[in-house]
Structures are given as C-alpha cells and as structure tokens.
C-alpha cells in the first residue's frame, strides 16, 4: 500500500481550515500533516513537514496567496491546489495562480449538503492527482510570436483541448501565435465564472485577440475563442460557433470530443491539438479528425503537468506527432501553411 498524500492546509479562516481538514482526513489516501493560518508560518511548516501537496487560500492577510505561490514555485516547486471562491475577483486571482504554476484549484465547499459532498469529493480527487503531477519552477517566460512567413489558408481552423495544467500550457502556447493566425477554438475544463477572466487575462499577453466564445460568432483570423465553462458544449457548424445544450460527455461540458468532432468535416483544413489534462476527453474526437486528414498534435509527456489526455489520444493512434510546448506553435502554423486545404469552414 502506498503512503497517504501528505497535505498541508494554508487558509486564514479557522472554520475553513477545520472544514478542509475534516474532508481530507476522511479519505484514507490523504493525511493532513499540518494547518497554517498564513504564509509565514506555512513556510516554516513546509520546511519541517515536507508535505506532498499544499492547499492554498487565494486571498489572505499579510502576504497574499499569489505572492506566496510565486515564492514557492521559484524556491521550492511543489504541487499546489488553490482554494478559490466563485467570484469575479476569485476567478481572476485563480487564473493568475495557475499561470504561476499551481497544479489545480477547487472552489471552497459551500451550499447544500449535496453541494458540499460533491465539493468534498472533488477536493480529495484533485489533491491526490496533484501529488502525481509534474511540477516545474515557474512561470515560463512569455514566448515571442512566431512569424507567419508565407501566409496560411483562409480555410484553416485550429481546435485545442486541455484540462489540468492547461492554463499554464496555454499561457506558453498562445502568446507565440501571430496576429494573423487562423481562428482557434479552445475547450479548457473550468467553471463558467472563470472562462471570461481567463480569456481577458490571456488577451493581455497575446498578439492574437482572445475572447470568450459567443453563440453564432463567425470565427475570424487572429482570434482565439475560449468555450464558456460548465454550461454548454461548443462546436463549429455551418461556419459559425455554436454553443449548444446537452448532457456532459465523458463527465465534461463543454467537451473536447464535441469540439473536435465538429471539425471533422473540414478534413485537412483542420488542426487538432490536445494538451495536458486528466482523463481521455478529446482522444476519440482527435482520432476522427486524423482519419479525416487533419494534422493532429499532442503535448509531450515531459512537458505535461498531467499526461492523461495526450496519453489517451496517443494510445488509440489519434496523434500524428508529440511536441513540446515550445515546438507546438511552429508546427501548428506549418500545418496551416502546407496542407492542401479542402474543407469549408
């Protein structure tokens, strides 16, 4: 039997620390080794207790969670799960935390007993997954936008799917895309209240324009569309972005598989990219894209926070080429330049 995941809780609220401890301690695969009310005592507890995972409150007095996280990822990189609130401020700070290198985030347990039970299960799952994540010193420096060189087909469309670790990966990938890049459609697993903040934060760092997708939008060159979280699926239909109701697919809404399958009719005009994340969302859709003639890429194992979604796609033969994040932008643009474009958006 493997030893439990040694977890340190950092939160300025005594009641929330008690709640988190009760939830995590109920899982036999997790051991709460300590609790700290603020970053300064947490720093000493990290040194003495050597935890596997840290749960970290986003906003605290003294040194805030972001400043503390930045120091951790620079001096002693370790898996960190942020505890956030479902507010605009909480979303913006959480996005920044993920950019800085936090593995994942959870919303603080609240609501009905059923809501709390669901939040508790998710918290335990994410803490255990974080313990297995590949953590590197961060954040990565912003890349320069690569040259579009000889131009790209007007028919090209790029689809990207990502989950755990995807925020950090997209902050490494998207700023490298040039302002005349073909339209990019992205499904990143996150709550509805987070995707607008995510798009707005990315837009500040990118040559392309990044926006939360809206129903009926016509994909334009130089624009990245982030699927709104948790509410509806996103697909491309008859040349427009469609946000449609529907049950979760493989536990996800929006689903990467739904997006990728909608790009299949484009044939070689489509490019599919699957990035870091847990599970297998996107694998089957990517396989269908490849079978239709699309270029398909997956993030390489050594650059993934969680090599789950790319691995699932690789194992079923859906991946044309595995690439590091640094090599991905040029490969995507080359695919848009060199393939014969046969589909119509």
UniProtKB/TrEMBL annotation:
Chief localization: cytoplasm
Domain of life assignment: Bacteria
UniProt cross-references to InterPro entries, sorted A to Z: CheB-like, CheB_C, CheY-like_superfamily, Sig_transdc_resp-reg_Me-estase, Sig_transdc_resp-reg_receiver
Modification after translation, per record: Phosphorylated by CheA. Phosphorylation of the N-terminal regulatory domain activates the methylesterase activity.
Keyword match Nucleotide-binding: no
Keyword list, A-Z: Chemotaxis, Cytoplasm, Hydrolase, Phosphoprotein
Location in the cell: Cytoplasm
GO molecular function, one term: protein-glutamate methylesterase activity
Domain Response regulatory positions: 6-123
Modified residues annotated as 4-aspartylphosphate in this record: 57
Pfam families attached to this UniProt entry: CheB_methylest (PF01339), Response_reg (PF00072)
Residues forming the catalytic site: 163, 189, 281
Catalytic activity: [protein]-L-glutamate 5-O-methyl ester + H2O = L-glutamyl-[protein] + methanol + H(+); L-glutaminyl-[protein] + H2O = L-glutamyl-[protein] + NH4(+)
EC number: 3.1.1.61, 3.5.1.44
SUPFAM superfamilies the UniProt entry points to: CheY-like (SSF52172), Methylesterase CheB, C-terminal domain (SSF52738)
All residue ranges annotated as the CheB-type methylesterase domain in the record: 151-339
Top-level EC class: hydrolase
GO CC annotations, alphabetized: cytoplasm
Single Gene Ontology BP annotation: chemotaxis
Family, as annotated: Belongs to the CheB family.
Role description: Involved in chemotaxis. Part of a chemotaxis signal transduction system that modulates chemotaxis in response to various stimuli. Catalyzes the demethylation of specific methylglutamate residues introduced into the chemoreceptors (methyl-accepting chemotaxis proteins or MCP) by CheR. Also mediates the irreversible deamidation of specific glutamine residues to glutamic acid.
Free-text note regarding domains: Contains a C-terminal catalytic domain, and an N-terminal region which modulates catalytic activity.
Entry protein name: Protein-glutamate methylesterase/protein-glutamine glutaminase
Lineage of origin: Bacteria, Pseudomonadati, Pseudomonadota, Alphaproteobacteria, Sphingomonadales
């Amino acid at each position: 039997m493997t030893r439990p995941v040694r977890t340190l809780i950092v939160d300025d609220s005594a009641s929330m620390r008690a709640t988190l401890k009760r939830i995590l301690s109920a899982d036999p695969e997790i051991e709460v080794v300590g609790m700290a009310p603020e970053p300064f005592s947490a720093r000493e507890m990290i040194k003495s207790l050597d935890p596997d995972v840290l749960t970290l409150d986003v906003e605290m007095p003294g040194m805030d969670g972001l400043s503390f996280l930045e120091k951790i990822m620079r001096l002693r990189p370790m898996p960190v799960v942020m505890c956030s609130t479902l507010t605009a401020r909480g979303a913006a700070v959480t996005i920044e935390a993920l950019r800085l290198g936090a593995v994942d985030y959870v919303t603080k347990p609240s609501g009905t007993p059923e809501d709390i039970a669901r939040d508790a299960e998710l918290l335990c799952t994410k803490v255990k997954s974080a313990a297995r994540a590949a953590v590197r010193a961060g954040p990565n420096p912003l890349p320069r936008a690569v040259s579009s060189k000889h131009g790209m087909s007007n028919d090209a469309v790029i689809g990207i799917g990502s989950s755990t670790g995807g925020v950090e990966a997209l902050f490494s990938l998207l700023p490298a895309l040039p302002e005349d890049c073909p339209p990019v459609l992205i499904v990143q697993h996150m709550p509805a209240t987070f995707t607008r903040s995510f798009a707005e934060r990315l837009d500040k760092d990118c040559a392309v324009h990044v926006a939360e997708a809206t129903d009926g939008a016509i994909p334009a060159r130089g624009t990245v569309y982030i699927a709104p979280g948790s509410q509806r699926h996103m697909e491309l239909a008859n040349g427009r972005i469609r946000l449609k109701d529907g049950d979760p697919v493989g536990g996800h809404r929006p689903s990467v598989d739904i997006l990728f399958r909608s790009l299949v009719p484009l044939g070689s005009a489509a490019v599919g990219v699957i990035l870091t994340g847990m599970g297998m969302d996107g694998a089957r859709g990517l396989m269908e894209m490849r079978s239709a003639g699309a270029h398909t890429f997956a993030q390489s194992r050594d650059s993934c926070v969680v090599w789950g979604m790319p691995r699932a796609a690789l194992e079923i033969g859906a991946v044309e080429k595995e690439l590091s994040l640094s090599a991905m932008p040029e490969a995507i643009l080359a695919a848009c330049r060199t393939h014969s474009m046969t589909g119509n958006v």
